[in-house]
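Quick review question:
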């Protein structure tokens, strides 16, 4: 069972402002897949640590899983495992992640400057690649007069609107994809509640979605 996020113990902007900035970073990560060879979750974690003098584990948990529905988030103890990998990754690059008892995690200013230098180098490489019109050796073509579809158009194939409480369906899509589809649907139907779990249907693996309320 997920633990409540609780009170944020981080100095500076509100958690909402922090996550708005974080979403922009995640957008870049989605395009470039990895930043500094870190996973998306670790990139989010490192971003929060870089932005603040000290960051609580509650703040890191909220940032790592802000795009997941509450029922799809792992237990808050999962943050410890991610911090272990981040600490190891930093240690291999002569950077130490410090712990301040009762407050959270922090990096020294010289180490922050070092890491920000690495990120700037990655951004320059990405922009140079983008300027050439290639990403992962794929030629990108700019097209004109393509109509913009509704943001909900990609989720029409899921029968959320026809479901009654207790109904479910199976999809071969991953659980994160289904969580996003549910999120978009609930923006127009906030009183509807769903749950999703990894599942199998015969030999196929995917996600089963239930309407709860």
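Suggested answer, residue by residue:
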């Amino acid at each position: 069972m997920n633990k409540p996020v609780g009170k944020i113990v981080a100095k500076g902007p509100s958690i909402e402002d922090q996550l708005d900035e974080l979403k922009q970073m995640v957008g870049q990560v989605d395009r470039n897949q990895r930043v500094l060879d870190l996973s998306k979750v670790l990139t989010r974690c490192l971003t929060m640590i870089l932005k603040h003098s000290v960051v609580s584990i509650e703040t890191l948990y909220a940032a790592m899983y802000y795009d997941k529905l509450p029922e799809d988030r792992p237990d808050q103890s999962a943050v410890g495992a991610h911090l272990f990998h981040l600490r190891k990754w930093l240690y291999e690059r002569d950077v130490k992640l410090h712990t301040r008892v009762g407050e959270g995690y922090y990096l020294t200013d010289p180490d922050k400057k070092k890491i920000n230098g690495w990120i700037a180098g990655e951004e320059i490489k990405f922009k140079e690649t983008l300027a050439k019109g290639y990403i992962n050796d794929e030629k990108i073509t700019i097209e004109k007069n393509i109509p913009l579809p509704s943001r909900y158009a990609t989720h029409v194939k899921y029968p959320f609107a026809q479901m009654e409480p207790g109904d479910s369906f199976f999809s071969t899509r991953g659980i994160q994809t289904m969580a996003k589809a549910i999120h978009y649907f609930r923006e127009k139907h906030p009183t509807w509640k769903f749950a999703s779990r990894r599942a199998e249907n015969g030999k196929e693996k995917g996600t089963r979605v239930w309407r709860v309320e």
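Why it works: The longest strand covers residues 194-201. Residues 153-211 form one domain.
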